[in-house]
Amino acid sequence: MTEKESRKLSDEYEVADVLGKGGFSVVRRGLSKCPSAGERSHVAIKTLQRFGSTPPGLPRNRAGEKGLTSLGFPMWKQVSISDALLTNEILVMRKIVEDVSPHPNVIHLHDVYEDSNGVHLVLELCSGGELFDRIVAQDKYNEVDAAAVVRQIAEGLAALHKANIVHRDLKPENCLFQSTSEDSPLKIMDFGLSSVEEFTDPIVGLFGSIDYVSPEALSQGKISAASDMWSLGVILYILLSGYPPFHATSNRHKQQIILAGDFSFDDHSWKTISSSAKQLISSLLTVDPHRRPTAQQILQHPWVTGDSAKQDLMDAEVVSRLHSFNARRKFRAAAIASVVSSTFFLRTKKLKNLLGSHDLTPEEIGKLMTHFKKICAKGDNATTSE
Ligand code: ATP
What we know:
This is calcium/calmodulin-dependent protein kinase. GO terms for molecular function: ATP binding; calcium ion binding; calcium/calmodulin-dependent protein kinase activity; calmodulin binding. By secondary structure, the chain is α+β, with helices and mostly antiparallel strands. The protein contains 12 helices and 9 strands. Helix 3 runs antiparallel to helix 10, helix 6 (about 225-240) runs antiparallel to helix 8 and helix 11 (about 350-355) packs antiparallel against helix 12. It is globular. The site of adenosine-5'-triphosphate (ATP) has 21 residues, from strand 1, strand 2, strand 3 and strand 5.
């Protein structure tokens, strides 16, 4: 990757349809104007907008060089959160380019452009959809399939952790399939909240669900590679049951049970799950981060290699629960994206509390919609007292 300060994105790419939207970004399909080997390549262009009044400026140094510490990270506290996220994502992506890419399970960054619309990350296109979307669309699903997913995420994490990169926001929606083909690789993406151990001051994860957040992250202890392993444990638990391990109606209660590592395999659907899978989950969901296995270690685990994973079809109830879980998650993600992108989101405490609770009841969804309409009507005047 080279610096593209003087060239324009539009000189090299045709920008097409919107693929998705995040809190501070819009991702569009792009088509290169200059064919390589006779073909025009398809990419994803993630445009991160600046909202802060005094943007910190793009880092000009190559990630990994010592000069990065002179970028003034303490300044992040004075600039908007969106600017801090933006700078962080670029730093981490550059580190990935230098120390991890190409890797089949980590998204690749081709280029970076900057103009008055914001910063454009030209990324490898992943057109195969999100992890849970594909699983719920399958008519057959068993432990071997789940093990293949865990193996790919662990491969990606092992490479990232080796480069001292901690993802910090590992969740199913940040895992996309590269293509729709059956053997498509699964890619880890969205490094907006990630940290590079030696030079970034991690941004506190203010947004979204705490379902995947480790106890040490919640208690504001040191966040390390082991925190990603906890998140992987949560993903695995959901893959095999259709519901999250830490389940509560209030965010405060959920925090308490995460901190205590209080989960169980009591539901009847766990009876048919192999003991090897349960043992792996228990090791990943160990409260003490030092006692959790590393990504490299779990790649040798007999369940992850597929040796002890059951081939029997998963209980239909698990797949149906996964369906509902996925639908609720998508609804909440859309709500968060629209709230986060508004300038007043940090002041809408009530809404944040509602969104933090994973299991939205119909009544809560109604409340959420009413609150949405209210804050939309009030615009920037919404306050925490609502
Ligand atoms: P969030 O606020 O959830 O952290 P974000 O602003 O970091 O989001 P992303 O999650 O990276 O944005 O991207 C938003 C959406 O765009 C994704 O959910 C996905 O649907 C789509 N998307 C992102 N990257 C790609 C890609 N490389 N290929 C295809 N689609 C992508």
